[in-house]
Specification:
alpha/beta; Alkaline Phosphatase, subunit A; Arylsulfatase, C-terminal domain; 12 helices; globular; Sulfatase_N; metal ion binding; Sulfatase-like hydrolase/transferase
């Protein structure tokens, strides 16, 4: 017999969090409200975004399709202006068509940034109130929940927090953009956790204290919303999802296809289905799996164009999850096309341009934290192909793309990556006559998929930095 599932959906999300929470074993982050939610939910320990930056990642989350397919290959605000090819594929429209009341509060960054009423009409929301700091988002969400409680109509409420995105502050030193803005206080009350991909020095510790304060600030907002949901008696009839767009806004994380750029917190509290209570799932999942999962949970059909797979069988029946997750970057603040395929143990990255190994995500001229692999004046240009043994080298420092002992691994991941690129209609499969590097990388990826050894004379490489 099919379990009875809650019918409402409250989807909470934030910027730039990665998995930097107590629930994900970061002991110095004060996130008691999200930790409590995790304890009542299924927490996915190996969830990944499809892109390491805001708009493409969110477009995948809310459409169940990859950026190459949905059209959002870069940022959706001016002057970039990327947009969903078909805005009606948004989850809000899917649910509105099925009779749901739909509302967006806070961050909207998954389609072209336009006036709120225009966004509502395009994406299928009854109401959109975008923007606002934590307190504004909480106030508007409380009001929306009050209205929902007075109605018999099921609701989809999409709530986005800006925090812990970097935010300018009058207290920042010249050339620095930190995490505090004008309302957040740095927090080292439980100590500091400097991620292993950063140098552990005074600059990194200053940034991490600010980041921990911003996460705590956001967590308090989540707590206020969940408390009000409970006070209204809606918790037992509401699926609660919490996630973020991508990894932390730190060097060698955001804007890279290394795990710290793509890893995301993902937890789902599903009343009425005991298999979802207090679970931790270590199988790899992708943001594209969220939409088909939610639709199955509320007994609606999965759209034919969905590129994800429902996680209901994974959680409730113990079925195997996906064999690969895929990541892509095309255009953030400049064109830096790259693609990645990840298995449980290995990752292959194809870099189609000669950009630096890691795009700067700090939006600062003066850097307070630096990559741990930096041992010279530059981190160098990226190699054509990168292959990492994630078990022995979880920091992804030892590129083994030309190691004959891993030729079978390289071939399998290259084949999976090329197949995914074809299935998603990836524009990078077309040769770019203005970019010789593009030709070489596509040829190298194709040869790798065929099991050919790497060329004896590779593309020019920068000095090794790790």
């Amino acid at each position: 017999m099919t379990p009875t599932t809650a019918r409402n959906i409250l989807l909470l999300h934030c910027h730039d969090l990665g998995r930097f929470l107590g629930a994900y074993h970061v002991p110095t982050v004060a996130s008691p409200h999200l930790d409590a939610l995790a304890a009542e939910s299924t927490l996915f320990e190996a969830a990944f975004a499809t892109a390491p930056h805001c708009s493409p990642a969110r477009a995948s989350l809310f459409t169940g399709t990859y950026p190459q397919t949905n059209g959002v290959l870069g940022l959706t605000h001016d002057p970039f202006g990327w947009d969903l090819t078909d805005p009606s594929t948004h989850l809000a429209n899917r649910l509105a068509t099925a009779g749901y009341a739909t509302e967006l509060i806070g961050v909207h960054h998954e389609s072209r940034v336009l006036p709120d009423d225009v966004v509502a009409g395009r994406l299928g929301f009854d109401r959109v109130r975008s923007g606002g700091d934590r307190d504004t988002v909480v106030e508007r969400t409380v009001e929306a929940l009050d209205r929902a409680a007075a109605s018999a109509t099921p609701f989809y409420l999409q709530v986005g927090f800006h925090e812990p995105h970097r935010t300018p502050s009058k207290n920042d030193r010249p050339g620095v953009m930190g995490f505090l803005g004008d309302t957040v206080t740095a927090d080292d009350s439980l100590g500091l956790t400097v991620p292993p991909y950063l140098q552990d020095d005074d600059g990194a510790r200053e940034e991490i204290a600010e980041l921990q304060g911003a996460v705590r600030h956001m967590d308090e907002g989540v707590g206020s919303i969940l408390s009000h949901l409970d006070a209204l008696g809606l918790s037992d009839d509401t699926i609660v999802v919490f996630t973020t767009d991508h990894g932390l806004a730190l060097p060698r994380a955001k804007c890279t296809l290394y795990d710290p750029g793509l890893e995301v917190a993902l937890m789902m509290r599903v009343p009425g289905r005991p298999a979802w209570h207090a679970r931790r799932v270590d199988a790899m999942v992708s943001h594209v799996d969220v939409l088909p999962t939610l639709l199955e949970l509320v007994v609606l059909p999965t759209p034919l164009d969905s590129q994800g797979a429902s996680l209901v069988p994974v959680v409730e029946e113990g079925r195997p999850a996906r064999a690969h997750t895929f990541g892509q970057l095309t255009h953030h603040i400049y064109y830096d096309p790259k693609r990645a395929a990840r298995s449980a143990s290995y990752k292959l990255v194809a870099n189609f341009a000669n950009a630096p190994q890691a795009m700067d995500p700090t939006q600062s001229w003066v850097h307070r934290s630096l990559p741990a692999v930096l041992n010279g004046p530059t981190i160098g240009s990226s190699s054509a192909l990168e292959l990492y043994d994630l078990v022995r080298d979880p920091r992804e420092c030892d590129n083994r793309a030309e190691d004959p002992a891993l030729g079978h691994v390289r071939a399998g991941l290259a084949e999976a990556l090329l197949r995914w690129m074809r299935e998603t209609g990836d524009p990078l499969l077309n040769f770019d006559p203005l970019l010789p590097r593009h030709h070489s990388v596509l040829a190298a990826l194709t040869d790798a998929a065929a099991g050919a050894p790497p060329p004896a004379v590779a593309l020019p490489r920068e000095r090794e930095t790790a």
